[in-house]
Design a protein that fits this description.
The protein is α/β, with parallel strands linked by helices. It contains 10 helices and 7 strands. It has a 7-stranded parallel sheet. Helix 1 links the parallel strand 1 and strand 2. Helix 5 crosses helix 7. The longest helix is centred in the C-terminal third of the chain and has 36 residues.
C-alpha cells in the first residue's frame, strides 16, 4: 500500500515564499510530493522557498502553477477544501482523520485526490469550496483557532501518513468512480448558461450565490462520467425544446401581425 499516490496539495493565493517552503518541508516529512500553486502573490519561482524547505527540493522543483483553483483541480476526482469556517455552503464537514480515510480509499480505487488550502490572510473563496467534495476542518480549541499554513498541511499530511503506515485494508468504492472536476465544471457551466438564458438568475445580484448553491447541491450527488454525459444531454434537450417553443411563439406573433395588417 506504500505505493499509493498521495494526495496533491493545492495552495490558493499563497503570499509568502517562506510559507511555501515550509509546506514543502512538511509534505516531504509525511510522504507527499506534488504541490500546486494558484496565483501565488509574488509569482514563481521564489528563491526564499528553497531556503526554508530544509532540503525538500524535489517538492519545490516539481511545483505547477495555475491561474485558478478550477484549473488546478481539474484532473482530480476527490478534493477536500481545508478551512476553519464552513462558510455558507452546505457540504459535509470532516476532520482530517475522516477525510484522510476517504482519500485513502479513493486513491486505492485508482482515483486522483487532493487537499486545497487557502491563502494566509483571506482563506478560500466560497466559489472554490463549492468545487470540492467536502470541507476538512481541524478540531482546534476555539479560544485560539489560528494555525499557520504549514501547520494545517502538516496535520492533514500526518493523518494520511498514519493510514499508509498502518496499512488498513481499503474500502473500495462500489460502482463507477466519480467524474473528474473538469467534467463537473463543464456540466455546471453548461447548466448555468442555459438557466441564465432562461432568466433563472433573478435578481442578477444573486446569481453568484445561486450558482454556488447549485454546484454544492449537484456536487453531493458524486456524478460519474456517464451521469455527467446524461445530465448534459438532458440540459441540451431542454434548451432545444425552449428554442422550439420560442420559435413557435415568434411565428404565431408574426402571423397575427400579418392578419392585423
Amino acid at each position: 500500500m506504500s505505493e499509493l499516490t498521495p494526495p496533491v496539495v493545492v495552495l490558493d493565493k499563497s503570499q509568502m515564499a517562506d510559507n511555501i517552503g515550509a509546506v514543502a518541508r512538511v509534505m516531504a516529512n509525511f510522504g507527499l510530493s506534488e504541490l500546486r500553486l494558484v496565483s501565488p502573490r509574488d509569482g514563481w519561482p521564489q528563491e526564499r522557498a528553497w531556503a526554508t524547505a530544509s532540503g525538500a527540493d524535489w517538492v519545490l522543483d516539481g511545483v505547477k502553477v495555475f491561474d485558478s483553483v478550477a484549473e488546478a483541480i481539474a484532473d482530480l476526482h476527490t478534493v477536500f477544501a481545508t478551512t476553519a469556517r464552513p462558510r455558507e455552503t452546505r457540504q459535509p464537514v470532516r476532520t482530517p482523520r475522516e477525510s484522510a480515510r476517504i482519500l485513502y480509499d479513493d486513491t486505492a480505487s485508482g482515483l486522483k485526490t487532493g487537499l486545497l488550502f487557502g491563502g494566509e490572510r483571506a482563506g478560500l473563496e466560497t466559489g472554490d469550496i463549492a468545487l470540492c467534495a467536502g470541507i476538512t476542518t481541524i478540531p482546534i480549541d476555539p479560544k485560539h483557532h489560528s494555525l499557520n499554513l504549514a501547520q494545517a498541511v502538516a496535520i492533514n499530511a500526518y493523518e494520511w501518513r498514519t493510514l499508509i503506515l498502518d496499512a488498513p485494508p481499503p474500502r473500495f468504492r462500489e460502482g463507477e468512480p466519480p467524474a473528474s472536476n473538469d467534467l463537473l465544471l463543464g456540466m455546471y457551466e453548461h447548466l448555468e448558461a442555459e438557466l441564465d438564458n432562461g432568466g433563472f438568475f433573478y435578481p442578477p445580484e444573486k446569481k453568484r450565490s445561486m450558482s454556488q448553491n447549485l454546484r454544492v447541491m449537484l456536487g453531493r450527488a458524486a456524478f460519474t462520467e456517464q451521469e455527467v454525459a446524461t445530465m448534459r444531454g438532458a440540459i441540451h434537450a431542454l434548451s432545444k425544446g425552449r428554442g422550439r417553443v420560442l420559435a413557435k411563439l415568434a411565428a404565431e406573433r408574426a402571423e397575427a401581425e400579418k392578419k392585423d395588417t
